Amino acid sequence: MPMVAGRLRDPDINPCLLESDASTRCMDENNYDRERCSTYFLKYKNCRKFWNSVMVQRRQNGVKPSMPTAAERDEILGAMGKMPY
């Protein structure tokens, strides 16, 4: 597996791995009909927006690493009580 593809599959680097997998699976199951998978694409897009805003905020506050680890993300989502996306 190429290094870039491996990084995208790493849950510590890609916070939207589940959403990405769900949209890919939907495309596979629906013969690549994008209209049938629009809700999955929207969830992925909202996930990326949410974690990007978290990353920007952490960067502004000087927190390293700017992207929370998978364990930290679970804590953040648990504290929110529901999925923000």
Automatic annotation (TrEMBL):
GO terms for cellular component: mitochondrial intermembrane space. InterPro entries: COX23, COX6B-like, Cys_alpha_HP_mot_SF. Keywords: Disulfide bond, Mitochondrion. It holds the Pfam family COX6B. It comes from the Eukaryota. PROSITE patterns: CHCH (PS51808). It is found in: Mitochondrion intermembrane space. Its main location: mitochondrion. GO terms for biological process: mitochondrial respiratory chain complex assembly. Belongs to the CHCHD7 family. This is Coiled-coil-helix-coiled-coil-helix domain-containing protein 7. The gene is CHCHD7.
